[in-house]
Amino acid sequence: MTDVAQARNQQGAPGHADAGRGRRRAGRPRLRPASDTEVAPRAEILDAAAELFVSQGLAATTTRQIADRVGIRQASLYYYFTGKDELLLELLTQSVRPSLRVAAELESRCRADPAAGLYALALIDVATLTHAPHNIATLYLMPEVQAAEFASFRAERAQLQAVYGRLGQAAAGGGGMTEPLTATLLIQLVESVIQLRRAGEMRDYGHEIAAACLRLVGLGPAEVIRARAAAAGLTDSLAG
Amino acid sequence: MTDVAQARNQQGAPGHADAGRGRRRAGRPRLRPASDTEVAPRAEILDAAAELFVSQGLAATTTRQIADRVGIRQASLYYYFTGKDELLLELLTQSVRPSLRVAAELESRCRADPAAGLYALALIDVATLTHAPHNIATLYLMPEVQAAEFASFRAERAQLQAVYGRLGQAAAGGGGMTEPLTATLLIQLVESVIQLRRAGEMRDYGHEIAAACLRLVGLGPAEVIRARAAAAGLTDSLAG
Questions:
Q1: Which domain range does residue B50 map to?
Q2: What whole-number distance in Å separates Cα of residue A185 and Cα of residue A192?
Q3: Domain count of the fold of chain A
Q4: ipTM greater than 0.85, yes or no?
Q5: What is the pLDDT of residues B178-219, one digit of tens each?
Q6: Which residues of chain A does B139 touch, with a Cβ-Cβ cutoff of 8 Å?
Q7: Residue B88, in any domain of the structure
Q8: In chain A, which residue's Cα lies nearest the Cα of B190?
Q9: Interchain pair A216, B215: CB under 8 A
Q10: Which of A9, A90, B199, B228 is at 20 to 30 A from A128, Cα to Cα?
Q11: What percent of chain A has pLDDT over 90?
Q12: Which residue has the higher pLDDT, A186 or B234?
């Protein structure tokens, strides 16, 4: 590489163009480096893929477009990913796995206080969905996501939904809705954050949505306040 | 068409292989009429379009495929619709307009009892979504639906959402969530029926979801029972 090419590459390396210029817009088109020797990391490719999938749909998006957006050659993209399906699976998985990981932990620690467990899970799940790149969860309902390639994602989301159902039923003390219906309504309520992000509403809705989940299963104001306090202890210890 | 070709067409026509084998799949491919003089009505075309849009996505669906499924020529489809966009707009509109129509009526009649109005609206909206062909509302989040062509649908859905917000705030008696957040969470909860239909859960969830909406805005069990009874009077008089 020549010095000039190297200098351009350093300046033009994905994500470095506007370093220090305040808020960086993820995934926007970048200057294409003169050389492809420094390939962009996986995260850059995933971010660009998420933006294109969400803005123009899966069918219309090509790996060429994704590579162009990152500023790498298509061949370099294939060094990291086998193709569109793997990119989408990785993005979908990232939008559910962090929540599923804590869900199992919360469930085992909250047998005596399922309301606190439900509150903490909703709070953490809202955070996961809020940070998923480019609101990737808008793709959950796409026909393409029902294909066999994405079975592992669907299974993880189903597991998360089942934890909502068990915590919700336990918190409600039985009576009322069936566990599968409770599970569906609770995860649906948490996924409202997808709609809120789409509408450009960017403040943190965690506590409001978590409280709404508890009211949904029939808990009153005093119980919601108590569960919120108990959940704070839980999330602190999970983070620690 | 030769006799042989006709026989093959009858036997081999997609969807007829399993005729009489129990449950009929709605919107399945139909026998192609020998002549095209009997054009299929709008409803048949809309139903076929809905099935293809939902099962394989918008981008992958052509008007040719839709016409084939109905058993008419592509040119006949264009006699009724200008193309895919008009079909999709009509389907989306059908999934929201019946609810929006009663929403305005309910709002004006329930100033003194917003909880009953909210219960009745949720009940009617669940019914609208339950009867929308092929669960067409799964397409709400598709990038294509954000295009200018579908602005009128998005505006009607936003109006419906706003009614949920006003009824929800009035029923809750202020305090707690903002009206836009209330609106988003309530419509999201009602649209759980989309998820339930996708999961193959076909029983009527109207009353369970309507009750969940009232709990969400903070009403207790006694208030929910009272609102349900009052809503019954409302929906009867709307139907009459």
A1: 24-81
A2: 11
A3: 2
A4: no
A5: 999 999 999 999 999 999 998 887 789 999 999 999 999 999
A6: 141
A7: no
A8: A185
A9: yes
A10: B199
A11: 71
A12: A186
